Amino acid sequence: LNEMLSLDYENMTWKKLEVNGNKPPGRSSYGLCAVGEKLVIHGGTISAADREKLPTGAQYNGNSTVGCVNDCWQFCLREVLWSPVQTCGHPPSPRRGHSFTAITIGR
User: I need a surface site. Which of 13, 42, 43, 51 has the fewest CB within 10 A?
Assistant: First the structure.
């Protein structure tokens, strides 16, 4: 599935979000961390059929059915908006089942 749900803590009920922007391909086993008012995801496993939905420069390592990717996306909680993250430098290789943490250095 490629959907997002929100949990209302007061009523303990789930609500499907109507999401804006260029959505990332549906995936599993991705890394996720919160950065301010954004959720950032990296990598994971996607269907080979969704390879064409990856942003330019993203890598796919898999077979004709499924594979790992190294793309990075952010979800703005305030705007309910997905967008690909443009990174610089040498990105991590495609991976799944990993974690990552946002840190601030020198502030």
Answer: 13
